[in-house]
Specification:
Helix content is about 55%, strand content about 0%. It contains 15 helices and no strands. The structure holds calcium ion (4 copies). The site of one calcium ion (CA) has 8 residues, from α13.
Length: about 325
């Protein structure tokens, strides 16, 4: 197949994926349950749950327009989807501005500007959170850490650079490259686990630091236990949180259930917490008075450091005083 044909096929695939995601967001809104932005290193919103009445995927651009739809809400949804469809078909974010719902408009602006690699376009996104994700994705696609400097939140900016370094470490099978990544980002552990799953325990045994080696072995054996549904692999794990999670995961897989749990009360999935080095069994890992998820998604502070900006006052106290805890006083 010629390169040109491949590029066209890939582009069509991406467009279809974007349209399906957008449609799912629309469906979810029927239950007034709009996804809130999350910044987990994953760049997509949490996958929305499909409702029973969602039906088949409607065409985004209707032949007869949306005017004939009697129900006002359905009509608006049709118009919003049509604008999204035209934005994608023309690679033109101007169509996004016709979308009345702020969350869908932001989603439209994000996917179009991300694919265009347009940082200034990302700045037209209303929610800062998604603006940052948009720029982060451009930096990631270009593998250019300089683009990360365009992100306003220092903590997210660091995460952006971490993602690019993690990609390079994985590509080069470079465990040392994984280990220099900051601990409070899921890219570090995912990088370690990826190399362990590709190279087995030998990859973990190259690590000198005992904690890091145990994280590596924990991720490795958890992966093997999950894929073989064999809990005996969990017994090889030294770290308690990994071992407990491993057993839960195997039990879920055996019961034909998705292995996602939130064992504490911080709304973060246990496996995500292992990847973030936060404690799946404590809602406030660094004991600074702010829950892990609130630090990660609301305040963009470090859930592993009680004093993110290093000014001597713990994050919880600063938040109460409504200070900007990303910036030292
Ligand atoms: Ca949790
Ligand atoms: Ca936790
Ligand atoms: Ca905390
Ligand atoms: Ca903290």
């Amino acid at each position: 197949m010629e390169d040109k044909t491949k590029i066209v096929l890939v582009a069509i695939g991406i467009l279809i994926l974007m349209l399906v995601v957008f449609w799912l967001m629309m469906v979810m809104d029927r239950g007034n349950n709009v996804a809130t932005p999350v910044d987990t290193g994953k760049t997509e919103p949490e996958p929305p749950q499909e409702t029973a009445d969602s039906g088949a995927i409607p065409p985004l651009i209707r032949e007869n327009g949306c005017g004939g739809i009697a129900d006002a809400k359905e009509r608006l949804m049709c118009q919003n989807m049509e604008a999204m469809g035209r934005a994608v078909a023309n690679s033109d974010p101007a169509y996004c501005q016709q979308i009345s719902d702020a969350a869908y408009r932001d989603h439209c602006l994000r996917v179009i500007n991300q694919s265009l690699g347009d940082v200034e376009g990302c700045r037209t996104i209303g929610a800062k959170e998604w603006e940052n994700v948009c720029i982060m994705e451009i930096a990631h696609n270009k593998a250019d850490p300089a683009v990360c400097d365009e992100i306003d939140y220092p903590y997210t900016g660091k995460k952006c650079k971490t993602q690019i370094s993690a990609d390079a470490a994985k590509l080069n099978n470079d465990m040392a490259g994984c280990l220099v990544l900051p601990k409070a980002s899921n890219f570090r552990n995912l990088c370690i686990w990826t190399l362990a799953s590709a190279n087995g325990v030998d990859a973990c045994n190259t690590i000198e630091n005992t904690d890091d080696k145990n994280v590596c072995l924990g991720g490795y054996y958890l992966g093997v236990a999950r894929s073989t549904s064999d809990a005996s692999y969990c017994q090889q794990i030294a770290l308690d949180a990994y071992k407990k999670t491993c057993i839960k995961v195997v039990n879920a897989v055996r019961a034909d259930k998705e292995p996602y749990f939130n064992s504490d009360t911080d709304n973060l999935d246990d496996l995500l917490e292992l990847s973030l080095n936060t404690d799946p069994f404590s809602n406030d890992t660094d004991k600074d008075g702010v829950d892990d998820n609130v630090e990660l998604y609301d305040f963009h502070t470090d859930p592993l450091n009680p004093d993110t900006d290093g000014d001597g006052r713990i994050d919880g106290k600063e938040l109460k005083q409504e200070k900007d805890i990303n910036v030292p006083d």
